[in-house]
Amino acid sequence: MLMTNEEIKEAIGSGQLKIEPYDENRQQPCSYDARAGKEALVSRNDSLVDLSKTNSVTLQPGFSH
Questions:
Q1: Could you give the dihedral angle defined by the CA atoms of residues 11, 43, 56 and 27, in that order, rounded to the nearest 10 degrees?
Q2: CA distance between the termini of the chain
Q3: Whether 42 contacts 36, CB under 8 Å
Q4: Does the predicted TM-score (pTM) go above 0.70?
């Protein structure tokens, strides 16, 4: 789904979209600059990815936990 920065802000405000922690300084036109830590949880199969070993993870649209 493509969203403008205003649509992202509205979706966060309504609870339709959840970004934790949300930092308005990371909000860009039509995007949000997300940061990952050392691990990522892939919700479609509940697997924990060690980013220090793989250095990347692909986030698929439409999945939630």
A1: 10
A2: 18
A3: no
A4: no
pLDDT, tens digit (0-9, with 9 covering 90-100), for 45-54: 778 888 888 8
Strands (E), the chain: 27-28, 31-32, 39-42, 47-50
| Nearest residue to 2 via CA among 26, 31, 24, 27 | 31
Burial of 48 (0-12, 13-18, 19+ CB in 10 A): exposed
Residue among 35, 34, 38 at smallest CA distance from 52? 38
User: Could you tell me which residues are beta bridge partners of residue 32?
Assistant: 27
